[in-house]
Amino acid sequence: MKEFRDNAKKLMEKYCRVCPVCNGRACAGEVPGMGGLGSGSSFIDNVTALANIKFNMRLIHDVTEPDTEVRILGKTLALPVLAAPIGGVSFNMGGGVSEDEYIRAIVNGCMAKSILGCTGDGVPEFIHKTGFAAIREAGGHGIPFIKPWEDEELFAKIELAKATGTDTIGMDIDAAGLITLRRMGRPVSPKPLEKLADIIRKCGMKFILKGIMTADEAELALSAGADAIVVSNHGGRVLDHAPGTATVLPDIAAKVKGKIVLLVDGGVRSGGDILKMLALGADAVMIGRPFSVAAVGGLQAGVEKYIEVLQSELKQAMVLTGTRSAAAVDRRILFSGPR
Q: DSSP assignment, residue 327?
C-alpha cells in the first residue's frame, strides 16, 4: 500500500495530502477537494468518535479463523464493507486519473474481492454516466447512488440505473445543499416523507437511503419503505458541527436494528474500525476517502490491495476480541470503562 499511497500523494497534490491518518485536520474547509465543510469538525468528529472507542482484548477462547462473511440485501460479501459512492475526480481529487479509470477501479476491484462498489452522481453528467457504464459492464455488480434531484432528473436517472442490471439503488439524501452543486447551479433538496415513499415505491428496486443521523429519521426511512439506511453525515462535507456517526449509531440501532439493513460510514479507516461499527449495531460499513486514495494511486490493483489489508486487519481484531463471525458481533467486545 505504501507504493500506491505515495503515487496517490503525487497525483492528488493540492487536493489531498494522503495523511498517515485521514482525519480531516489538514484539509479542513477544502470543499471542493477532499476535506470537510467549514471548520471540518464533522469530518474530524467521525474519526475521533471511532478512535475514542476501545476494545476489550480477550484471548481465552478457540477463535482462530474468524468468519468475515456477511449477507447484505440478498448478496454475500467476503467482508462487511462497501466502497462508498464518490465522484468528481477532476475537481475533488486533482484529475490525476480519469473519472472512467477511477470508477472502473472501484467497481471491478470490489467485484474481484467479493464486496460491492458504489458509484456517485453529480455535475458534470459524465460522473453518473461513467458510474452506470462501469456497473453495466460488471454485469450489474455495484450500487449506483443518485442525488435527491427534482422529479424529472431523478426518475430519468433511476431508469438509467435500472438499465445497468443492478437490483439495488441508493439515494444520498445527505447531499442536499452540497456546496459544489449549488456553485454549479444544480441544487438538490431534502424530501418530505410522502414524497420519499412515492419515490421508493415507483423505483421498484431495493432502495438504500444514505444520510440518516437520528433515530427518528431512521424510523421514517423504514416507514417510507427503504430496504437499508446509511448512517452518514456525507463525510462532513455538507453540515459543519454534526456529530460523528459512531456517536449516533447506537441510538439508531436501538430503534431499527433487525427491521432494516443498517449501514454506516464516516471515519472508518481500518479493520478494527469496521469491527467497532459492527459492535455498535451496523450490519456493514461504507468507506470513502481511503478507497479513493487506493484507486487513484493504484487503480484496480490498489483497490484490491486495500480490501486485502482491511480483511487481514478485521480478522486480527476478531481473533483478539474472541469474535467468531462478522455477522454476529457482541457489543461486549467494546470497553465500557472502569466498573
A: T
Domain boundaries, the chain: 70-323
pTM for the model: 0.96
Residue positions counted in the chain: 339
Quick one: cell of 223?
416507514
Separation CA 269–CA 287 (nearest Å): 7
| C-alpha atoms less than 13 angstroms from C-alpha of 179 in its C-beta half-sphere | 17
**C-alpha cell of residue 190:** 431534502
CB atoms within 10 A of CB 232: 26
Give the pLDDT of residue 240. 96
**What was the pLDDT predicted at 338?**
61
Would you identify the CATH topology of the domain 70-323? TIM Barrel (3.20.20)
Half-sphere exposure of 286 (CA within 13 A, CB side): 32
Torsion of CA 82, 86, 92, 98, to 10 degrees: 100
Looking at per-residue pLDDT, the higher value among 80 and 175 belongs to 80
Whether omega for the bond prior to residue 243 falls within 30 degrees of 0, making it cis, is no
Q: Are 287 and 80 in contact (CB under 8 A)?
A: no
